[in-house]
Specification:
Elements (H helix, E strand, L loop, with lengths): L17 E6 L5 E6 L6 E6 L6 E2 L7 E6 L6 E16 L10 E5 L5 E6 L5 E6 L6 E6 L6 E2 L8 E6 L5 E8 L2 E8 L6 E2 L7 E6 L6 E5 L6 E5 L6 E3 L8 E3 L5 E5 L6 E7 L6 E2 L10 E2 L5 E3 L3 E7 L7 E7 L5 E6 L10 E3 L5 E17 L4
Antiparallel strand pairs: 1-2, 2-3, 3-4, 5-6, 6-7, 6-30, 8-9, 9-10, 10-11, 12-13, 13-14, 14-15, 16-17, 17-18, 18-19, 20-21, 21-22, 22-23, 22-24, 25-26, 26-27, 27-28, 29-30
């Protein structure tokens, strides 16, 4: 907009986070950080608008740029977040666990991990190639290999189909976040949703005929479902909803009430009905979950991560039993939770996968001869 005020004009249409901006010395372009956190990157766009381009010389994880007026220098904040996927052995629902192993790790972010239905493979999102892609590994974390090669747009939250033959995930391409599917080997890549709204966090129905997802096409995020073969879509929730999954018997749909860090798990019959809180405290209040991707529902209860108030700020993995209404401690986490890192449990409930942050490094970087 004009410095004197007046009409505003939109410059970018990527529908992504913006972290800082700076005018180039000739006032013809704007350099800005987009993506946020582990997905941050520097982009530049003409002041008149157009397609943003990457800034040459800027490292991944770059945001908050500053440009000198005369010496052709660019300074920015570089953030490096190392998030690993851990495996926790579960003896029985609600019992104390056995071994805890760092299963999938690199110098970058590895999260949103989920076992295949047969337990032989793990799909996960990773930045180890420099951009967000979907990867797959053996059940012990070995032989990691990429399944996608978008080379820039954010991708994440992969989810296996019940037969293990396909994987659904979300991807933010050209400013439009949509649900995609591909074969388990990465082939037959196909976009499922095409609405100009933001569509995130896919989850297959138990019969494999529908994909649940979150969309803000009504103005706020609600849970929808789509037939991946016909494209037919149907809204499920009407009072707020994000990450969703069916119970193993397919009778109940559980969902995060919001995409906030401290959210609640709610439920609705799979064929429609009243939306209710799934976990209530003894005082009758909905129990808070640490993050919208940090829970996993079964027929008899929910595994979830809870923020423990107090100076220690440690998080706890707990199991809420529907029959008793009690929440049982499973494991106290020593690392920091990296939302939306995720928590997922193998169908036979022997193993749990969850993301935990190892370290965060921030540095001020300088680029000389910036043009």
């Amino acid at each position: 907009m004009s410095a004197n005020g007046g009409e505003t004009r939109r410059i970018t249409t990527e529908n992504d986070l913006i972290d800082g901006l700076a005018w180039t010395a000739d006032n013809r372009e704007i350099v800005f950080g987009s993506g946020g956190g582990y997905a941050a990157r520097l982009r530049r766009v003409a002041a008149t608008g157009g397609t943003p381009q990457p800034v040459a010389g800027a490292s991944p994880g770059a945001d908050y740029p500053a440009i000198s007026r005369s010496s052709h220098r660019l300074a920015y904040v570089s953030i490096a977040i190392q998030i690993s996927t851990w495996r926790l052995e579960l003896l029985q629902p609600g019992n104390r666990p056995d071994s805890l192993v760092k299963l999938i790790a690199s110098t970058k972010t590895d999260m949103n991990a989920q076992y295949s239905p047969d337990g032989r493979k793990i799909v996960f999102g990773s930045f180890r190639s420099g951009t967000a892609e979907i990867w797959v590994a053996n059940d012990d974390g070995s032989a990691s290999a990429p399944l996608t090669a978008f080379g820039g747009p954010n991708t994440g939250t992969p989810h296996w189909s019940p037969d293990g033959k396909r994987i659904a995930f979300d991807a933010l391409i050209e400013g439009n976040a949509d649900i995609w599917i591909m074969n388990a080997d990465g082939g037959s890549l196909r976009r499922v949703t095409t609405n100009p709204a933001l569509d995130y966090v896919p989850s297959w129905s138990r019969d494999g005929r529908r994909i649940y997802f979150a969309s803000n096409r009504t103005g706020d995020f609600q849970v929808w479902k789509v037939d991946p073969d016909t494209g037919r879509e149907l809204q499920i929730t009407h009072h707020g909803g994000f990450n969703a999954m069916e119970s193993p018997d397919g009778h109940v749909l559980y969902f995060s009430k919001s995409q906030d860090e401290n959210t609640e798990v709610w439920k609705i019959p799979s064929n429609g009905g009243t939306e209710l809180a799934a976990m209530l405290s003894r005082e009758g209040q909905p129990i808070k979950v640490a993050g919208w991707y940090y829970w996993h529902a079964f027929n008899d209860g929910v595994y979830f991560v809870q923020i423990v108030p107090g100076p220690s700020s440690l998080d706890e993995i707990r199991f809420f039993n529907f029959d008793t209404g009690k929440s049982t401690l499973i494991k106290t986490l020593t690392g920091y939770r990296a939302d939306p890192g995720g928590l997922r449990v193998l169908s036979d409930r022997r193993w749990m996968l969850f993301a935990q942050g190892d370290r965060v490094d921030k540095n001020i970087m300088l680029v000389n001869n910036f043009r």
